[in-house]
Amino acid sequence: SQKIEQNSEALNIQEGKTATLTCNYTNYSPAYLQWYRQDPGRGPVFLLLIRENEKEKRKERLKVTFDTTLKQSLFHITASQPADSATYLCALTASGGSYIPTFGRGTSLIVHP
Amino acid sequence: DAGVIQSPRHEVTEMGQEVTLRCKPISGHNSLFWYRQTMMRGLELLIYFNNNVPIDDSGMPEDRFSAKMPNASFSTLKIQPSEPRDSAVYFCASTLMESDTQYFGPGTRLTVL
């Protein structure tokens, strides 16, 4: 069956360091993958999208990589700040016509000052 | 734009009661999604509409759940009768049809006692 896996344990890092979050998937032929940020009591907010033929995408302090051989996406936040503390969800859209994403359960990031 | 609007933000009800959740999508968007989020299962798609027409309701847990979209600016998700296991945060999201990115509302936190 199709699965999207994100680390359920919170990631704790020190301010200024690079945070790296992982999204692994199985039994998907992906068209593209998205990363969303979710703050407590709020809905997810779109951050970045990377297509299956792209290796890397950047936006300000954010970087996403996509390795379809390893079936993995990495999400990096450089020079992390306490304001980056949130839950980060990856969402995979399979190729084949449907544009509906399936979401992972998210990983909580805590950046300590 | 005000974004996706959901009401109520919090709902506490007793088992057996009818619950109606409401959503106003972003103006101009023609796809609308209802999700449920719990710690155990993450973010699950319940149903989505294109141009006010339900396309896929395979995620609706059982017949107690129903959703309608009478016009482009309003949708409801109804649970009748409600059960304690329905307690969750319910999100509505909207987008342009076949767009990559979804825009989420703030969610309704439902507690069924």
Mean pLDDT of chain B: 94
Please identify the structural class of chain B as seen in this structure.
mainly beta
Instruction: Calculate the terminal CA-CA distance of chain A, rounded to whole Å.
Output: 41 Å
Number of helices of chain A: 0
Low-confidence stretches of chain A: none
Strand content of chain A: over 45%
The quaternary structure here is heterodimer
Strands of chain A, total number: 11
Principal-axis shape of chain B: globular
Biggest β-sheet of chain A, characterized?
6 strands, mixed
Radius of gyration of chain B: 13 Å
Q: Determine the most extensive contact between two protein chains.
A: A-B, 19 and 20 residues
Order of helices and strands of chain A: EEEEEEEEEEE
| Helical percentage of chain A | under 10%
Question: Ranges of chain B with pLDDT <50 over ≥5 residues?
Answer: none
Which helices and strands, and how do they pair?
The complex is a heterodimer of chains A (113) and B (113).
Chain A: E1 3-6, E2 11-14, E3 19-26, E4 30-38, E5 45-51, E6 56-59, E7 62-67, E8 72-77, E9 86-94, E10 102-103, E11 107-112
Chain B: E1 5-7, E2 10-13, E3 19-24, E4 31-38, E5 42-50, E6 53-56, E7 65-71, E8 74-79, E9 88-95, E10 103-104, E11 108-112
Parallel strand pairs in B: 2-11
Antiparallel strand pairs in B: 1-3, 3-8, 4-5, 4-9, 5-6, 7-8, 9-10, 9-11
